[in-house]
Amino acid sequence: MTSRKAIVILSLIIVVLAGLLAALIKFRPLLDRISATSSNSIVKEILPVSEYTCLLYRYTTVVMHEESKKFNEWELPFTKKKYIYTYDGMMKLGINGKNISIKQFGQRIQLHMPPVQVVSHIIDERSIKVYDQTRNAFNQIEIDEAFKINAEQKAHMEAKAQSEGVFEEAQRAAEQQFGDLLKNLPGVKNEFIIEFVW
Fold first, then answer.
1. What percent of the chain has pLDDT over 90?
2. What stretches of 47-169 adopt beta strand conformation (E)?
3. Measuring CA to CA, how many Å separate 196 from each of 86, 88, 115, 146, 193?
4. Average pLDDT over residues 77-100
5. What is the average pLDDT value for the chain, to the nearest integer?
6. What are phi and psi of 166, to 5 degrees?
7. How far apart are the first and last CA of the chain?
8. Which of the chain's termini has less CB crowding within 10 Å, N or C?
9. Rounded CA gap, 28 and 1, in Å?
10. 108-112 and 193-197: which strand pairing?
11. What is the pLDDT of residues 45-55, one digit of tens each?
12. Angle (nearest 5°) at CA 197 between 194 and 198
């Protein structure tokens, strides 16, 4: 008789939890619609910059994230969260112009160039397409987690661009653009050889 009571009580608990979960999922969009967001600037600063953009790198990537809460390396049931989405990103690669030094050796002008760096890296929020997203009452996706994953994705794409030779391509683009500019200056055209040192 006691085991039968335990089964009935356990069944009732499971039904109540399932009902609460269903209600949460059903009324979640309503809760989302009545929430409001407020944003105010706290610090405003305008500073001069001497960054020179020499290459624009556009990409599309797929982000897949899946995790569950664990206890002693065991995956806890009903805690799995997963999402898959794509987005378009844009990196501007360039150099800091104030770090360029110029030396002249006879008929040669030598430009010592600073290393190419990522001047800006943005994700186009309008391009985000979600293909799969699980909602879980016991392990929800938090906003700080989304920011962390975006930062990790940006770092991953920057490393990928560097390994694929995009930074070297930016160097060649800078040499072409600075070279064309300098060669057309009066007194330089047909009189000096322009060299770049990275």
1. 33
2. 51-67, 70-71, 74-75, 81-96, 101-105, 108-112, 117-133
3. 39, 33, 12, 42, 10
4. 87
5. 79
6. -70, -35
7. 84
8. N
9. 41
10. parallel
11. 666 667 889 99
12. 140
Query: Which residues, 6+ apart, have CB-to-CB distance to 111 below 8 Å?
Result: 100, 101, 102, 178, 194, 195, 196, 197
Q: SS3 of 24, please?
A: helix
Provide the β-strand partners of residue 65.
83
Give the tokens for residue 67. Answer: 């995790």
Residues recorded for the chain: 198
Beta bridge partners of 93: 55, 118
Task: Report whether 94 contacts 52 (CB < 8 A).
Answer: yes
Does residue 108 surpass a pLDDT of 70?
Answer: yes
The contacts found for 185-191 with CB under 8 angstroms, 24 or more apart, are 188/109, 191/107
For the residues 109-125, what does the mean pLDDT come to? 93
Pairing of strands 108-112, 74-75: unpaired
**Domain definitions of the chain by residue range:** 1-32, 48-197
Neighbours of 132 (CB within 10 A): 10
CA 28 to chain CA centroid, Å, is 28
Rg over alpha carbons for the chain, rounded to the nearest Å, is 28
For the record, the structure tokens of 99 come out as: 């770090």
Q: What is the phi-psi region of residue 106: left when phi exceeds 0, alpha when psi lies from -120 to 50, beta otherwise?
A: left
